[in-house]
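Below is how a single chain appears once it has passed through the pipeline. First comes the sequence as given, then the structure the pipeline wrote out for it. We keep one example in the README because the format questions we get most often are answered faster by looking than by reading.
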Amino acid sequence: MISYAVDGGSVGPHYDQYDVFLLQAEGQREWRTGQRCGPDAPLQEGTVLSILAEFDEDERWVLNPGDMLYLPPGLAHHGIARGECMTYSIGFRAPSAAQLVERSADALLSQANEHTVILTTATVTLALTPVRPVAGLIPLRCSAYAMYLSLSLMMMPFWRVFWGS
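Resulting structure:
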């Protein structure tokens, strides 16, 4: 997103649920960062925007053309234009655990054939094709179990929070 603002222009203090890189294109913008926020952070009423009701400033930076500031997900921030300015906001959304598992399963299934072994649990389905025994190769049943454990761990509540939702 590209945002243009006149002197003093601002959206207000808010947070994003994804990684953001702020690249200053023209002019100057002052950025203030604050507390970590979650879905239960109190918001101002009477606006269609998700503006924080409380903002506890920790740090402050002034970006000049070519400067970049990284904001991790959930970090409260407030940008204020110093004169006319233009800022590029480059956001990155990480895939959820479910999307990672889905894409992995799709990739495995796309290579499946009539010799493929399917392992199913309540939450995960894996497709594994046996290979010819080779010296030093980990047996298929061990690899399959390791993958099963890894994917099962990713489905646990702790990992859902870790990977994002």
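The chain has a mean pLDDT of 80.

See the next section for the split statistics.
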